[in-house]
Each structure stands twice: as C-alpha cells, then as structure tokens.
Amino acid sequence: MFGHRSDGKKVKGLNIIDKAEPFFMPQRIDAVNYTTVKVPCVPLDEFIARERRNGVSYSYMHLVIATIVRVLYIRKKLNRFIMRGSIYQRNYISVSLDIKKKLEDEGESVTLKFYFTGRESLPEIKEIVDKEIAANMQEDSVHRTTKTAGKLVKLPDFMFRWAMAFVRWLDRHGMLPKSLIKASPFHTSCFLTNLKSIKLGYIYHHLYNFGTTTMFVALGKEKMEPYVENNKELKVGKFLTLGMSLDERVADGLYMGKSLKLCNDLLANPDNLMNGMPDDGSIPKKLIRRKNKRVKTKKVKQSRKEKKKIRPLKNKEKHDRKMRKAAEKAAKLSEQ
After folding, report:
1. CA distance to 22, 25, 111, 137, 292, per residue, from 62 (Å)
2. Does residue 209 contact residue 216 with C-beta atoms inside 8 Å?
C-alpha cells in the first residue's frame, strides 16, 4: 500500500516521458507493441545434436526460456511493470508456461510458473523446468494455481465477479497476499506459449490487463524460408520465429531494440548460455562470442634485406621525377 508492493519496488528518478506514459496509456493493452525474433535453426540443431551425444537432451523450449531469463537479467528494464500509473522493478524473474497433460480437446491445462535468479546456466534452467513439468504432468497431480482457481469458480457468478473485483482492488493497492501472487501465472516477468509442441506457427498474443505481465512470447514451429547469404546468394534455410508482445511503457525504443538484438544473438550462439552469470551482478564484457567472425588481414612483415632492395628503387624513382621536372622547367625558359 502507498506505493509498496511485495513483488516489486517503485522506480524513482524517471524522466518526464517515462513517468507520463502510464497516464496517457493507463491499460496494458493500450501500450502493447508486436515484433518477431527470427533465428536460423542450424546453430540450434548443431548444439542440440552435440549435447545429445554427450547424454543431455535439450529442446528449443529450454533454449528459449534460458535466453529470456538471461535477457531479463541483463536488460533489467524489461522486468518492470506498471500499476496505477507507477513503474515498479520486479524483485524476481519468473516465466509462466501453459501445458496440457494430454494433447486432446478435453485434456487438462496447467499453467506453471518457474522462478529464477537470472544467474543460472542452461543446465540449471533445464533442471528447474523439467522438474516442475514432471511433477505436474501426472494425472492425479493438482497445481497450486488450479487449487486457487478451483475455489473461486465454485462460487456463484455474481460472487465470483465480486471476488475478482476485490482481488483487482487489492492488487492495485499493493495488498494482494504473497500466496496469491505466487499462485497467479499473470504476475510474472514473461508468459510463454509453446505452439511448436502442437505444430502451429507463432502468433502475436495479447497482454493481460490483470496481473503484471509485460512480455508475452509465442514459440512457433520452425519452417523453411528463403534468405540472402552475404548479400549475394539466395538460399533456403530453416528458421525459428518468436512472436513477441511487449509493453512499451517500461522502456524506450532504443532499449527495446538492443534487448531484442541480445535475444537474437544468444539464440544464434547457444554456447553462451552454458555458463551462469557472475554472483556479483557484473556482466562479462565478451558476453556474445559469435561463431562467424570477420577474418582480419595481417600485414606481412618485410625483412631488412627486402627493405634494402626496395629503398634504392624508391630513391631512383624520386630522382627521376626531379630530373623530369627540371628538364621541363628548362624547356619552358628556353622557349621564352
């Protein structure tokens, strides 16, 4: 209450535009921008095949979640949210993911929420994700989100409407209990949907006005697309595309653009995700190590003997130029 929340800290010292935007666009759906991140699948497939030979099985979803966590840790403004016109910095990193226990029309859906510090390596993130999914894929398992929602839906419609209005009021004033925030998949850094698992392409998903989610990522099925290599040759390759919905009020266009570039670079070079981030919060200078580096041409050093051979030639050319100029000058004077 009075600007204090259990899931975030109010950001102070904002410039005029950043402070005013939430009042110009009070609802999250008013401020949503849509974009895509397109990544070639070759480096991803090579990385997955290599690790599989080492006995570790990664999927595209593991790499995408690890990339999101790393970007949110480095580009901290993306982990902000808006509530009642105020901007808050979230004090944790979390990713919500909706899964189906069975790929059937009547299969039960469960929305999971993974918590991270942001310093985890890819193997650690894989362990967190796989452990949570395995615990909730059993038919008799009941997730805490389902338990909480189950109590509300048992109410009559008019009481359900009152209860949700009260929950929204508590959330706006920073009085929503931690237990409800923990159970709510809508109070998260990023909401992810894996449409690749049901063989669908990416979409641009809307942002929920309820909760504090400022980023929605849709992972679509990879497909073959034409591309130009080195601005010369037209080829066809396999690409993975992410559809992203972002709340523009948390950061300006330049910040968003650099963040998207970092996301693209990390996915294109998944080896950079294998190591965790330093505990002191510092960011390594060489975070992105590209595989395709430009080849630098080295200057060939000449020996002293070769220099001595070249030097007389240069002196002779200089002498000849002087003699030609002197001859031309003498010819002009004789003509006069």
Report:
1. 33, 34, 17, 17, 24
2. no
Query: What integer pLDDT is reported at residue 299 of this predicted model?
Result: 46
**C-alpha distances in Å from residue 302, one per residue of 296, 305, 310, 318:** 19, 8, 10, 22
Question: Residue length, the chain?
Answer: 336
**Topology classification of domain 8-273:** Chloramphenicol Acetyltransferase (3.30.559)
- Tens-digit pLDDT profile for residues 73-99: 999 999 999 998 999 999 999 999 988
Any alpha helices (H) in 54-156, and if so which ranges? 60-74, 122-136, 144-153
pLDDT digits (tens, 9 = 90+) for 16-43: 988 999 999 988 888 999 999 999 999 9
Distances (CA, A) of 284 to 32, 74, 279, 281, 289: 31, 10, 12, 10, 11
Q: What average pLDDT does range 148-172 have in this prediction?
A: 86
pLDDT at residue 119 in the model? 93
Contact criterion met (CB below 8 Å) for 100 and 217: no
Cβ 254 vs Cβ 244: under 8 Å: no
Would you give the DSSP letter of residue 293?
P
Both tokens of 304, joined, read 């002293």
> How many CB atoms neighbour CB 286 within 10 A?
6
- Residue ranges of the domains in the chain? 8-273, 305-336
Q: What's the one-letter identity of residue 109?
A: S
Integer Cα distance of 28 and 3 in angstroms: 19
Q: d(Cα 225, Cα 238) in Å, to the nearest integer? A: 6
Sheet holding 8-10, edge to edge: 8-10, 86-90, 80-83
**How much is the pTM?**
0.79
Q: According to the model, what pLDDT value does residue 294 have?
A: 43
What is the four-CA torsion angle of 114, 120, 126, 129, rounded to 10 degrees?
-10
Split at pLDDT 50, 70, 90, the class of 291 is very low
How many CA atoms are closer than 13 Å to the CA of 111, on its beta-carbon side? Answer: 19
